[in-house]
Write a structure and sequence with these properties.
Blueprint lengths: L2 H16 L4 H61 L2 H4 L2 H19 L2 E4 L11 E6 L7 E7 L1 E4 L2 E4 L1 E6 L7
Parallel strand pairs: 2-6
Antiparallel strand pairs: 1-4, 3-6, 4-5
Length: about 170
């Protein structure tokens, strides 16, 4: 090979090296960018789900705090109704207090709050707080309720304060 041929070969190699990328390189670059875009979209969707989940959790916590602050008012209204003589319950004041108590109960119900603890129900330390026991034997069931407990979904807002004893004790 002469010098002129070598020079032409080097020129061709240089031109090929500087030539626009081939179809394979363009396809590889496209695939890389597409993969990067898909990952970015998936990350954004996960971020949006996380933010929405966190927002829902914070809303639930705020709602539970408000409801916990209302529960003593509901207790007081229920005690006032219970302690009123029958003739006063039928008066305008008694009916007004009962109407307010029903409105509070409606607010609790609309927010998914349900009472916890009924007489005869099995004692569950996750839902009930035993503050007294019936000395007749087993303390496996609720025999008296001192303060109603409440739950919202899976969360216990306030455990029921109860007296526990034998199941048969509340039937007698």
């Amino acid at each position: 090979m002469d010098a002129e041929t070598e020079s032409i070969e080097e020129q061709v190699v240089d031109e090929v090296a500087e030539a626009p990328p081939g179809i394979e390189e363009i396809t590889a670059e496209r695939d890389r960018l597409l993969d990067q875009l898909q990952r970015s979209v998936a990350e954004f969707q996960n971020y949006r789900r996380r933010v929405e989940s966190e927002r829902m959790r914070l809303r639930e916590i705020a709602t539970q705090d408000v409801i916990r602050s209302i529960l003593p008012l509901v207790d007081d209204l229920q005690r006032a109704i219970t302690m009123m003589p029958t003739e006063q319950r039928e008066s305008g004041l008694g009916e007004g207090i009962a109407a307010i108590e029903r409105k509070f109960a409606g607010v609790l119900e609309r927010n998914g709050v349900t009472p916890v603890g009924t007489i005869g129900e099995g004692f569950d330390p996750a839902l009930h707080e035993a503050v007294a026991t019936d000395e007749s034997g087993s303390q496996s069931h609720i025999v008296e309720i001192y303060q109603t407990g409440y739950r919202q979904g899976d969360s216990v807002l306030r455990p029921a304060m109860v007296k526990v004893g034998q199941e048969a004790a509340f039937h007698a």
